[in-house]
Amino acid sequence: MAESVVMPALEMAQETGKIVSWLKKEGDAIRKGEPLLEIETDKAVVEVEATADGVLGGVKSQEGDVVPVGVTIAWILAPGEQPPAESTAAAPSARKIEKPQVAARSSTPSAEAAAGTEGSARISPKARRLAREHGVDISRIRGTGPDGAITSEDVLAAAAAPAGSAAAPAGSAAPAQAAAALSTVARLMAERTTQSWTQVPHFFLVRELDAGALVQARERLAPGVERERGVKLTHTDLLVALTARVLKKHPKLNASWTGSAVQLNPQVNMSVAMAVPDGVVGAVIPNADAAPLADIALQRRDLTERARNGRLRPADLLAGTFTVTNLGMYNVDAFSAIIAPPQAASLAVGRIADRVVPVNGQPGVRPMMTVTLSGDHRVIDGAQGAAFLEDLAAAIRAPGELLGQG
């Protein structure tokens, strides 16, 4: 029986996905779980796997097409089976968007513009919010979505057009150049960080920690991890493991804001901030509180490699409950991180550097590290954040105890 391949919803508030490439071609045999195509989301390029065994057929959307979530883009068929009759027509809602068009401004609006007034326009909630944030008049936008609906891409293209000017005619490069100033990942990262910074009531707590025991633990445990998993153990791996275990004692720090209530998450899924071309992604290590240190190191390395190559999978980006972002390798002493909603907190880690500090009442040189907790005040308060940092500091002073490798 034919099984449809639809544009998946890989993230919250996702409206469309862009097909980057088909990894199989029409008529190819495929097996369930085999990589089928690559889709560009707000965060990265991810591989989508086949959901059944069969033959790929009835491909309706090609590379470069931007397709609404839930629309059928192909079929997985039994050998000799034909795709359903309705799939033979071109998909009306799959489209290749080079530049959303903005209706020309004039004292006599066109029929299309008149139909696009705020009260009657077909516009997604996300696009309406973006229009308010960017001060865009949606009555002047010609939607490129299904049935002329105005999408977020249309609004952003309109916002990028020079102020007070009409949309350039076809063939003019000015709006296209403005819209191309940021890549998709960079533009959407800018949008999301702006949304978080302006809507989430952030507060910040800073602690200076003695990292001597952490450094010693890495030196002691690294050879065994490399033998066991063939991967280099990093300070980030240790911090992810320790933070995840401390979070079990502080469930509010591992919670999510749902918009009207606090949701306690049963799993501790650590999101590790990773630099990619044009932005940052949060790749997730699930159940990190129970994962052996060697497994965390291996997952972190694999996620880093896939992130750098733009080959993260959907599961790599989903369900993170707390973020650790470490800029120590860039010689940053301290910084504050923006929370990734719906998470309630994030930990920013600076470099480990020798500093003169009191040691048993006398000046001494110790390897010190500054950590900054970013908290969502709707979910946690300063006292709860401070208690978490106190327990994290104790874990870093004696990492072997919490990791069972003392």
Q: Would you report the number of β strands?
A: 17
**Gyration radius over CA:** 25 Å
Named at the architecture level, the CATH assignment of the largest domain is: 2-Layer Sandwich
Q: Which word captures the global form?
A: globular
Low-confidence stretches: 87-120, 164-180
- Largest pleated sheet: 7 strands, mixed
- Overall pLDDT: 80
CATH superfamily of the largest domain: Chloramphenicol acetyltransferase-like domain
Our estimate of the beta-strand percent is 15-25%
Describe the structure in brief.
The chain has 406 residues and is α+β, with helices and mostly antiparallel strands.
Give structural notes:
By secondary structure, the chain is α+β, with helices and mostly antiparallel strands. The chain has three domains: 3-88, RNA polymerase II/Efflux pump adaptor protein, barrel-sandwich hybrid domain (OB fold (Dihydrolipoamide Acetyltransferase, E2P)), CATH 2.40.50; 111-181, no CATH class; 199-403, 2-Layer Sandwich (Chloramphenicol Acetyltransferase). Helix content is 29%, strand content 24%. It contains eleven helices and 17 strands. Strands 9, 12, 13, 14, 15, 16 and 17 form a seven-stranded mixed beta sheet that branches. Strands 1-8-6-3 form a four-stranded antiparallel beta sheet, with no helix packed on it. A hairpin with a 4-residue loop joins strand 4 (35-40) and strand 5. The chain is globular, with a radius of gyration of 25 Å. The N and C termini lie far apart (56 Å). Mean pLDDT is 80; it is low at 87-120 and 164-180.
